[in-house]
Amino acid sequence: MSDDDPDEAAAATTPYLPLFLRATGRKAAVVGGGLVAARRVETLARAGALVSVYAPRLDEEEFALLRERFAFAHVEREPTRADLAGCLVCYVATGDPAADERLHAALADAGVPISVADRPDLSDFISPSILDRAPLVVAVSTGGASPLLGRMLRARLETLIPAAYGRLAAFVGRTRALVNARLHSPTARRRFWERALDGPIAELVLARNELAAEAALAAALDRAAERGERPPLGEVYLVGAGPGDADLLTFRALRLMQKADVVLYDRLVDPSIVDLARREAERIYVGKRRADHALPQEEISDLLVRLAREGKRVLRLKGGDPFIFGRGGEEIERLAEHGIPFQVCPGVTAASACAAYAGIPLTHRDHAQACVFVTGHGRDGPLDLDWETLLRPNQTVAVYMGLDRLEELTQAFVAHGADPALPAAIIDNGARVNQRVVVGSLADIAAKARAAKLRGPTIVIVGTVVSLRDKLNWYAPERAAQRSGKPPPEGAQ
Fold this sequence. Notes:
Elements: E1 27-31, H1 35-46, E2 50-54, H2 60-69, E3 72-75, E4 87-92, H3 97-107, E5 114-116, E6 129-133, E7 136-140, H4 147-160, H5 164-182, H6 186-197, H7 200-206, H8 210-227, E8 235-240, H9 251-257, E9 262-265, H10 271-274, E10 282-285, E11 288-289, E12 292-293, H11 297-309, E13 313-318, H12 328-337, E14 342-345, H13 350-357, E15 370-375, H14 387-390, E16 395-400, H15 406-415, E17 423-428, E18 436-441, H16 445-452, E19 458-462, H17 469-472, H18 477-484
Parallel strand pairs: 1-2, 1-4, 2-3, 4-5, 8-13, 8-14, 9-10, 9-13, 15-16
Antiparallel strand pairs: 6-7, 11-12, 16-19, 17-18, 17-19
């Protein structure tokens, strides 16, 4: 992601729009009489579709059980475009690739979405792997890239989502109208259901004690109605988003991201991470870059207070860790002054993550028994650093936000007694697909960084641990870039 546009790095996309279509009472067509066709007939019939199967003959072994469980029509010929009129969908699965391709060409302009078995390039839609906990249904798709992977993921979900969750979904469906009648505010209803589904009411349903669950829900509704419709005081979640790789988020961060009504995020938070927040949440960009603040820090703190007072749960997403040069302390100081509840969820800080992805251990028994974090910027500009502390032997120095003053910084190291040959590295967009690492010494790292045209965000590592990179470098962003379709990073060492 560049410094110029926080939305420049687009998240990975799929050409398929995930939907659940109502099939009950709708016509649907399946072309083919073998195993794959039989599975398509079962899927459609389970959803209540009126299925017509077009094939000269049906495999008796595959279709015998289907005849006992579901009603469908068998038409002993290939379909015409007229046969598909009014159909919701059409599956083509004859088992003969040449016949499938010919039938697709003949039916493509019938005005009905068509799916051809094992040919996503010819399909208007694809069938996901389905976890059925009716009325709860989970669909997993890889966009046709690997149906086997989709089935493997579904198998994992089978172990994580017990069959009883279907009973819980049905219970909510039965009682939803009652809750809507008692609680008129959408926010109040959502908060009520969050408490119900994560507490004793849900446990009673899962234990098959639905009478007790209904009584507990009625009592909870009475308490909620007594409190009135005015939303309670909101809360702020100060969450560290790490350096950019969504895989480095904590489980707790993901849980809080799903509870938020509003998301405030800055430039260092990768768009793919912002997309993991609750889809209905309002998103507000408050990003800051050097000498150009989209929203001044004081206004960000005031906004957090105002939104929480409106009863909203506010997710404050910050790159790295909010308490390491993230100004998180300033923000929660303001919240504490106004009595706003808050939680802090730490994140993987840039020095740790970027060094790890660059193959540079921050500490090592033979090189560094300590590590010091410093920033190249203070509240009012460059810092007057404690050089006596920074220049102690057998330690690593990690400099945040040092790109702008890298030459000044390295010259100061040398001027205060550091060896010009001391290894140094600058990591640009660390832990991301466009990561670049430039390695040198205090004497030449600034010139090398200029030549590489690094744009940031960056972290600078100074110390003999940098010499271990050649041996320990494991991350290959150029291969990750090729897989993502993005151009490989240039100028890296």
